[in-house]
Design goal:
Length: 422
């Protein structure tokens, strides 16, 4: 039997594909200290199963597939690229069902949905979770469409979870998401806690709210509100009209890194900081070697932030998209830096992104405001230049066990144990 310590209580974890088992695997992945621990994250035989599927399908089979069922959203958050997308872009239920079937066939364990607001497709998502009982599902949601009826469905299904977005306390959340949204998010969290759902929180940190979202006060608040773990995203200036003033400086990013890591160690609370957890995930967390993203138009992308693609699942199979030249080229370049604290090709090594998007057929998938990799790099080069010496200093001071972990992952991936096409 598996257990997690949550708010001082020893929680029993049901078996896969229960949503709490996904939380358990998340804790395990980001706590890996040895080769054995890494090889047994998904069970004693899962690693051999993955190697088998990678060989059989001649591609890297993602542990986690992120899908946007719709680009529509009931909010218009400041600085969010989803607001730029066509509101009628969506994947039909039939296509989502096909993707889930194909994903399970090739060995994918987890389907996570974002958008847009995925709960605008609430009934379709419930049907998918009901049908595909050998997959774990999760949703990045703004929380405003979570009600008691839906939470009861989460309890009934078991294999569906939610990650609720919040930008800080009332002032910061309402600044980005709209007046009154904070109160609706808290109401949703209270419901989820009451029904013992192992939900996560999702916070985007910017130059405006970085101190708040990384503070003990805020994290304690979310912990007590019932969150079992958290996702932390640094703001990226995606799209030609993005607000670059929301980007964190190198000093602000370092501040968040140190605060989050201190809090995690003190409270044994899993928080995945996408900008600063590269040493725990063989480079970029979001565009990991076991990760892929499909947007609401069907474009296969390295991650939800990297809006470049050369393949679309509307005219090819999931496996064919995973074999695309761009995906292969992207993974061949990982890690993008020898310093695992510079993991992101958009923010930390922008010239690497420029290089790999020059491949034939690669195009911007950003609908209203498409931008080339060079245009994006022109906004992030200054950020990367100022972060590099800070990252080097932090890397030199990093605990040797953390460096060893990264070397273990690198050796595994590069030796062909998990990636066959590199």
């Amino acid at each position: 039997m598996k257990y997690l310590q949550i708010r001082g209580e020893r929680k029993k974890i049901p078996g896969f594909p229960h949503h709490k088992e996904f939380v358990y695997r998340t804790y395990r992945f980001f706590e890996v200290k040895s080769l054995f621990n890494f090889l047994t994250i998904d069970g004693y035989f899962q690693i051999f199963r993955k190697i088998y599927y990678d060989k059989k399908y001649r591609c890297v089979v993602p542990r986690l597939l992120l899908i946007d069922p719709t680009s529509a959203c009931n909010l218009k958050c400041h600085g969010c690229w989803a607001a730029d997308y066509q509101k009628n872009s969506h994947l039909t239920y039939e296509k989502l069902d096909e993707l889930c079937t194909d994903a399970q066939k090739i060995g994918v364990l987890t389907i996570i949905m974002s958008g847009g607001e995925p709960l605008l497709r609430k009934s379709d998502i419930i049907k998918l979770a009901e049908k595909h009982t050998k997959l774990t599902f999760g949703l990045f949601t703004n929380g405003t469409l979570i009600d008691e009826e839906f939470v009861r469905e989460l309890v009934r299904l078991g294999n569906l979870n939610v990650f609720v977005s919040i930008e800080g306390f009332r002032e910061d959340t309402d600044f980005r998401r709209g007046t009154g949204i904070y109160d609706r998010v808290i109401t949703a969290m209270d419901l989820l806690k009451r029904y013992d759902i192992g939900f996560g929180f999702s916070a985007c940190y910017t130059s405006k709210n970085f101190e708040t979202v990384s503070s003990d006060e805020f994290l304690d608040f979310l912990y007590e509100k019932g969150a079992w773990f958290g996702w932390m995203f640094n703001y990226l200036p995606i799209g030609n009209d993005s607000d670059v003033f929301l980007c964190c400086t190198a000093e602000q990013r370092e501040y968040v890194k140190q605060k989050i890591e201190t809090y995690q160690k003190k409270n044994k609370f899993a928080i995945i900081d996408f900008a600063n957890s590269g040493h725990k995930a063989f480079g970029c967390v979001a565009a990991g070697s076991d990760f892929a993203h499909i947007n609401a138009n069907g474009d296969m992308e390295p991650c939800a932030f990297c809006h470049y693609s050369d393949s679309n699942i509307r005219n090819m199979s999931l496996v064919e998209a995973l074999r695309s030249p761009f995906f292969k080229n992207f993974r061949q370049h990982k890690p993008f830096s020898k310093n695992s604290l510079r993991p992101c090709p958009m923010m930390d090594v922008p010239d690497a992104l420029v290089s790999i998007t020059k491949s034939s057929g690669v195009h911007s998938t950003h609908i209203s405001n498409p931008e080339t990799a060079e245009q994006l790099a022109s906004k992030t080069r200054q950020l990367s230049t100022k972060w590099e010496p800070v990252a080097d200093r932090l890397f030199d001071a990093m605990d040797e066990s953390e460096k060893k972990r990264f070397r273990i992952l690198k050796a595994l991936y590069r030796s062909g144990g998990l990636i066959k096409n590199n």
